[in-house]
Amino acid sequence: MxxxxxxxxxxxxAATTRHGSRSLMTCAYKCGNACDxxxxxxxxxxxxxxxxxxxxxxxxxxxxxxxxAGAIVVGAAxxxxxxxxxxxxxxxxTGPGAPLSRTPFASVAPNKADAVTVPPGFRSDVLIRxxxxxxxxxxxxxxxxxxxxxxxxxxxxxxxxxxxxxLRRDAFLMVCNHEYTDEALMFPAGYDGEEIKRIAMASHxxxxxxxxxxxRPGAYKVSSRANAYNRRIHLATPFELDGPAAGDERLRxxxxxxxxxxxxxxxNCAGGLTPWGTVLSGEENFNQYFEASSGTLPAAQAxxxxxxGIVPVSERKCSTVDERFDLDREPNEPFRFGWVVEVDPYxxxxxxxxxxxxxxxxxxxxxxxxxxxxxxxxxxxDDERGDYLYKFVSRKKMDRRRTARAKRHxxxxxxxxxxxxxxxxxxxxxxxxxxxxxxxxxxxxSDTESFVDGMSVADVLIDTRLAAxxxxxxxxxxxxxxxxxxxxGKVYCALTNNSNRGTAYPVDEANPIGSSMVxxxxxxxxxxxxxxxxxxxxxxxxxxxxxxxxxxxxQLLLVCGDPEAPETYFGGFPKDKxxxxxxxxxxxxxxxxxxxxxxxxxxxxxxxxxxxxxxAGPRRGEVKQxxxxxxxxxTCGPFISADDRTVFxxxxxxxxxxxxxxxxxxxxxxxxxxxxxxxxTVQYRS
Length: 686
What we know:
Blueprint: H1 24-31, H2 48-58, E1 61-63, E2 72-74, H3 76-79, E3 122-129, H4 148-151, E4 159-168, E5 171-178, H5 183-186, H6 193-202, E6 205-213, E7 220-222, E8 231-233, E9 238-242, E10 261-263, E11 268-273, E12 279-283, H7 302-307, E13 340-343, E14 353-355, E15 367-370, E16 375-381, E17 389-397, H8 404-410, E18 417-425, E19 437-446, H9 457-462, H10 464-469, E20 479-484, E21 491-495, E22 516-518, E23 527-529, E24 536-542, E25 551-559, E26 569-570, E27 584-589, E28 595-599, E29 609-613, E30 624-628, E31 634-640, E32 646-652, E33 679-685
Parallel strand pairs: 9-14
Antiparallel strand pairs: 1-2, 3-33, 4-5, 5-6, 6-7, 6-8, 9-10, 11-12, 12-13, 13-14, 15-16, 16-17, 17-18, 18-19, 19-25, 20-21, 21-24, 22-23, 24-25, 25-26, 27-28, 28-29, 29-30, 31-32, 32-33
């Protein structure tokens, strides 16, 4: 019989869920059940919800004439947003391959279907599945005969981030992250437990895959011809550590005595494309892969370990097949993970990099903006309850020329500059009542000088959480994807949720921020729940539109949840005309600047989904559900093609439902086999 990883003893308890639609199984495999453990942030710094409540309390609360019967409009200024680009374009297009920004669609209703459900007139195709060949020598997938060597050549498990870069007119390079594995769903009976671990570890990482336009406008297929680009990046792939912390004693191990190289990347979640043609990927829940064989954390590293959620005993037991994950043998190995990774998909022989200058934390991803003076700005969130929002501003300017020399220069931009952390205030900006408050970026360190008392540059970069704790930033509700809208230049951040924030705030018309109303199933009654169960989407406007400046204004675009719940808010749009949305996770933008939001852990009783939201003009805040994913799955990606015709979506962990096993699956999507296979899909107008 198969020996599964000994995750949680009640993982088969089908009645148990965690934090919305996430099953206990998902929480166990994805993040080591982080939300049921103590919050790693021990400070009493102000929470974002407190700031938001103060801001909303400052405004007058209007009954819903403008937003629909029984609805709540928070702030008169937001009830009628100013008309300004970007917005959903007027004059819809309905033909095959029509632009997503101009195509009207009927909202997809909440559902529990074991399918990718799209509006009438749209099509969804599976592009690539777990186990499909990536490298030219990769064998065909055989679930009964998996090996680590095969997995290192095949499309990995649980695809998350999707990025697509141009190659030639009809050819592109798609880069995907493979965040984590669920061994209970991956392996039929007969595998050895230690072999399961080796295969699972080989199924982490990233894939670079050449794709081509297919017959229908907006459709794509994987290139069937051998090419010089396809690549699998995994835990045996060499990486280079760069930036000021590279070579520090804490980054040295017996296998890497210089502290400048490391094997592999772990738990890669979201990411972003750079203007110079590379991909940034965030290492997130790396902590769950490490443990101490002695059962006790090494004393010298214990404060740092604890702040990052590293515990003496890990359920994954990776150290039994790779001793570098044993803290007693290699106490510095955890310091080599938790970075932003940069990969050049155009050069299969290139060595990926881990950028220490962007700080070490549970990066959801990283995304680039260009400041007015040409310097590069990278935004990133630390996806943990109560942790912080960060940005980096480069020292040097970007070279905009399309030459090999310019690219080499640009690939050094993330090694020198200044790292900041965000502090939010409910202070009303002068003559700008449409904003909820202001904020500032607090410097932590440059590449040459630390701004945190008692900590060196390397200290700040390696223990970024501990450094940030000292300057009193704002504690956020799991800041995940942070991206810049290419049309209006504003920054949008998904604050997924914070279900265990502490004492629940009352839900009432005067104070709608703080608690959530949830449903156990579609159509069920709304019931109160403590904490921020449904999440927010935060909109940040840099001072004078310049991302290098340290000041900003902010407002809540969305207070997510059921439109019937009193705490919800949709940018001032009438609440009776929007789709329910819960647990925003990743964001993307179409050519018109409309926001697309994917969800993870819907608390409203439906499968997770993808939503389109105009961010300005008379339809600002009009949340419309475009897609739902199968049973037990999370909506990842998304990525809008450059021609605005296609949205790529990574369907992660289909069938990850308590009690499910390979032999008794809760889902068989994409229905090519008798078991679920995480896959990337493409959606377009048919």
